[in-house]
Predict the 3D structure of the following.
Amino acid sequence: MNKTVNQKAWFLVLPVLVLVAFSAVIPLMTVVNYSVQDTFGNNVFFWNGIRWFEEMLADERMWNALGRQLVFSSIILAIEVPLGILVALSMPKRGFWASFCLVVMSLPLLIPWNVVGTIWQIFGRIDIGLLGYTLDAIGIDYNYTQDFYAAWITVVVMDVWHWTSLVALLAYAGLQSIPDAYYQAAKIDQASRWAVFRYIELPKMAGVLMIAILLRFMDSFMIYTEPFVVTGGGPGNATTFLSIDLVKMALGQFDLGPAAAFSIMYFLVILLISWVFYTVMTNLDKRDAKG
Amino acid sequence: MTHTAQAPGAASIPGDMTADRAAARTRRLRRPSGSVVVMTLYLLFLMLPIYWLLNMSLKTNTEILSGLTLFPHTLTFENYATILTDASWYMGYVNSLIYVVMNTVISLAVALPAAYAFSRYSFMGDKHLFFWLLTNRMAPPAVFALPFFQLYSSVGLFDTHIAVALAHCLFNVPLAVWILEGFMRGVPREIDETAYIDGYSFGKFFVKIFMPLIASGIGVAAFFCFMFSWVELLLSRTLTSVDAKPIAATMTRTVGAAGVDWGVLAAAGVLTIVPGALVIYFVRNYIAKGFALGRV
């Protein structure tokens, strides 16, 4: 759709611009401000150059948190994407059961994040939780507050529980857009189930799946509340992801300079991923406009 | 259709074809049942933890701690009564609802004209602006927690509902703009042009004709603003202490000197699920579009 050039459209965008500038640009400038200054207290700040950045880059702590973050994001993508596709393929196409599945699957997405944490915290406890109790009863040593692997598995399973439906819903929306004629043609050609998936369903889902993968990567990259409630970042630092580490540094220890430098590098990574996301989105829009 | 092709009348089919047909039939029988198994297992996996929470909220604390029971033996609504009669508890819900509704109204009010501009006109810097909005949706709240705290403290808005509502605009305004833009591009531009020729002013056209056309889009955008403001905790907890404390933060008070009051904690959790569960039915067909920022 070719749009008319109209510079007055800026007036329509202005409210958004003012509001988002207030809630994003001003805070972000504060962060930039802190990242280049140091203080000895009493609100006296002096110029510190890029020393905080150098310090953070040399610090093991940030790299460890980043490493854990990348491992976590990769694991949940590796589980949620195939599982989401499988669920989307298994969903009823229409009728009462389709609505039923949609509603039930959306439920975890609408639960406040700390309640998600609480649910799993309770569910995994050995004394009162169904999961912890069952595992304990069949002789598996499971304690997510003490054991490294148990903590990781709990956090990963919780995220799979929380967000797989998002991948499934998007893949399902992609599947719904395939006309019946495609399947009939495949049947005439006696295509195998795998061929139908590989050459009809997967290409049609590719666009939405890309969105799903990027959204899941991005949201898992800034996960905070759920693991914080369940494990508090522990045992030790085992599940201290980037956001948890950052909040610890900024609000817990009030290390403003390092925390600000950390924030800015964190934000740059997010900016980069957002740009990939945006490119994918606009390419999809163009493809839709053509076909 | 395929059944007529394989009708019993086709008696002249050679033997191997019949075997093929039988194989095809079993495959067709087996495949849906495979799907049913996958779906049942998945839905069970989703519902079990929620059921457990509900189950616990209907038990007494003695029953919770005395051993595992799959359903409440002594059914009690005591835990819910505790929450609904204690002001320091239910005010948490009221606070949450106030800032969530405020945020939804503000987000939609500013996003509607902006989304219209993005969907209809091209202007200087429009693409950059659209991208910049997206980066705000993707920004980690952890980065903004401290600066928000300082900003709202310095302007005297700390611990007010409007502070949280404005802070949540950080991700909800971009989300609303993207979703609404996705819906608006589906409305043909001829409608705008016809209305202008008929002598409608922009404001009148927008409210009387355009908004009813994208009513479902507005509903979906409102739902997503509501939802993302409702589920967020880090910012709302950082920006409040007493007067505007959200329910999600209030829940931590169940941890006392005498241990955790599990029953009340579970009941509070169940009550936070209710608002989402009530409206999800109405947007079920659009939920994928909303999560994909209007792009499915």
